[in-house]
Design goal:
The complex is a heterodimer of chains A (228) and B (295).
Chain A: E1 2-10, E2 16-25, E3 30-34, H1 41-48, E4 56-61, E5 64-65, H2 74-78, E6 81-85, H3 96-105, H4 111-124, H5 140-152, E7 158-162, H6 170-185, E8 189-194, H7 197-201, E9 206-211, E10 214-220
Chain B: H1 3-19, H2 21-58, E1 60-65, H3 71-75, H4 77-82, E2 87-93, H5 95-104, E3 123-128, H6 134-142, E4 147-151, H7 154-196, H8 198-207, H9 211-250, H10 262-290
Antiparallel strand pairs in B: 1-3, 1-4, 2-3
Helix pairs in contact in B: 1-9, 2-7, 2-9, 7-9, 7-10, 9-10
The chains are: A alpha/beta (228), B alpha+beta (295).
The complex binds adenosine-5'-triphosphate and magnesium ion.
Magnesium ion binds at residues 41-42 of chain A.
Chain lengths: 228, 295
């Protein structure tokens, strides 16, 4: 569950990135967050992951109140999230398998749990035959699927993807979106930030549109007023 | 701590040392230099201290009692002298005893024929608590009624005391300086690793690794480097001490000096070296990783 309550965010240089944003995403939902460049999408994602704090208002994520969360609680909040970026952020000198296993190991999972879980998620994203390869031996779409596997491996309640298809051709992009939809159908809440109008319109999902740091429309289907 | 996590920290720490072998070598060297200088000055200070202690236990000042006093009157001065601050003991030596002692030092006493104890006065041998205060004590005793003279071997003692003080000050300053230099080099060595691994650190934070977990491999790296530094410098210090004391005893007129055996100081020195090495390692690594853990 994600809830923004009248959130304002000003950066240190004075830029007002968000000016009173409120929305709520229920458990199990699939939502797109769309808007022009500089409208505040990444700012919303960074607030969700605790990378930055709101200037005003409240941010709730999976039962944590990020407006006044203790520093020591932050890692446990992050374990309820899976995060995917446009640039994949894989570790180049680790294999596909190790990249995914790494995410489990660093939160203290046992070797046994890792051996059981990693092959399962690699199969889920369709990379079970690629597990020994290194990231630079994979296509962009495959690398992004490794990143999704890594986001999934700790069984998060919410997957957040910031422009996950930004570097991919339309066919690969569609594949990635289908994969995220499949993950959503398995019970994980999904929030996807994207620029790509066609992509959004080929799924009939909830679309939250933002411009100039404000929500300008929120509903099922297309881009709504953002199209104008 | 779970077993697999413990081995993970150790493995990561050792890998980082080999990945940056040159800087690791440099930081071990600087710790070794720091510890050897610190250790050498400490050993020097300890030895000078022992010399001073021996002198203190042997050394006395001689208090000469006024000739006109009877022996009973002279004996009654004892408690007065012992009441002077810094005096630990005052032993009365009558003129007869002093005369007999004096004659004892000569094999042929014939040339003192015709003389008797009347020519030397009664005296006290006075032992001090702290020879550094000898001058003051000497003056205090001289002011007592019935005392004609106070004789002391001040200069040698004061020389040693001055050496000890200088050695102490120099070693404190050097140790402080070298400690900060080692810390600086150590934290920069580990910063190379944290910089190289910044992506990994970012991913660890993203997936919810705790700060403690992220820190450990770097702390282990620092601890291992510090420990190696401590052990190497302990062995080198040992060899150096052996070499220098042997050279001094056998050579150049220092034969009268005795040195503390290294074995007697080995355990405290090893403990201090290990503590400094591990301390530099831990603090250095915490400084190196600090900036990555803010968000
Ligand atoms: N660290 C920062 N410091 C100052 N201003 C920032 C910072 N990050 C973003 N901004 C500003 O805040 C506004 C919103 O930025 P944000 O990154 O949220 O936009 P976005 O919707 O993600 O854009 P894009 O589609 O190009 O990624 C922009 O005006 C941007 O210049
Ligand atoms: Mg953005």
């Amino acid at each position: 569950m994600v809830q923004f309550i009248d959130v304002f965010k000003s950066y240190e240089n004075g830029t007002k990135a968000l000016r009173g944003v409120s929305f709520k995403i229920q458990d199990g939902e699939f939502a797109f967050l769309v808007g022009p460049s500089g409208s505040g999408k990444t700012t919303i994602i960074k607030l969700l992951t605790g990378e930055i704090a709101p200037t005003d208002g409240r941010v709730l994520v999976n039962d944590y109140d990020l407006s006044n969360i203790k520093f020591s609680k932050m890692p446990y909040m992050r374990r309820t999230l899976g995060i995917v970026f446009q640039d994949y952020r894989l570790i180049e000198d680790k294999s596909v398998y190790e990249n995914v296993a790494f995410a489990m190991r660093v939160i203290g999972a046992s070797a046994k749990e890792i051996r059981r879980r990693v092959p399962y998620v690699l199969e889920l994203v369709g990379l079970d035959t690629r597990s020994r390869r290194h990231p630079q031996e994979l296509s962009g779409g495959e690398q992004q699927r490794v990143a999704i596997a890594r986001a999934l491996v700790n069984n998060p309640r919410l997957i957040i993807a910031d422009e996950p298809t930004g570097n991919l051709d339309p066919a690969r992009s569609l594949e990635i979106m289908m994969l995220l939809q499949k993950i959503n159908e398995l019970g994980t809440t999904v929030l996807v930030v994207t620029h790509e109008k066609e992509l959004v319109e080929s799924f009939s999902k909830r679309v939250i549109a933002i411009d100039g740091g404000k929500i300008i429309s929120d509903g099922m289907g297309g881009y709504y007023s953002y199209e104008r | 701590m779970k077993g697999n996590r413990f081995f993970y920290y150790i493995r990561e720490g050792i890998n980082s040392i080999f990945n940056h072998s040159f800087m690791s070598f440099a930081s071990v060297c600087i710790i070794v230099a720091c510890l050897i200088i610190m250790g050498s000055f400490t050993l020097l200070a300890l030895n000078v201290d022992t010399v001073i202690d021996t002198m203190e236990s042997q050394n006395e000042i001689l208090v000469v009692v006024n000739d006109s006093l009877t022996e009973d009157q002279a004996r009654s001065l004892g408690p007065l002298i012992e009441a002077v601050p810094n005096v630990s003991r005052a032993v009365f030596v009558s003129r007869d005893k002093a005369w007999a002692d004096f004659l004892d030092t000569y094999e042929d006493t014939s040339r003192f024929e015709g003389l008797d104890s009347g020519i030397i006065p009664d005296r006290y041998e006075v032992f001090l608590e702290d020879i550094a205060l000898m001058k003051q004590t000497q003056q205090d005793i001289a002011e007592l009624p019935g005392v004609t003279d106070v004789m002391a071997a001040l200069t040698i003692m004061q020389g040693f005391v001055r050496i000890r003080n200088i050695v102490t000050i120099i070693s404190l300053v050097l140790v402080a300086m070298l400690f900060f230099i080692s810390l600086f080099i150590m934290s920069n060595t580990i910063k190379l690793t944290t910089f190289e691994r910044r992506d990994e650190i970012a991913i660890m934070k993203m997936v919810g690794a705790t700060s403690t977990f992220i820190r450990w491999p770097f702390v282990v790296q620092g601890l291992i480097l510090g420990l190696i530094g401590a052990l190497v410098s302990f062995l080198m210090e040992w060899g150096l001490y052996q070499l220098v004391t042997e050279k001094l005893i056998s050579g150049a007129g220092f034969g009268f000096l005795t040195f503390l055996p290294f074995s007697q100081m080995a355990i405290p020195i090893l403990a201090v070296f290990a503590a400094v090495g591990l301390g530099v390692g831990t603090i250095g690594s915490l400084l190196a990783i600090k900036n990555y853990l803010k968000v």
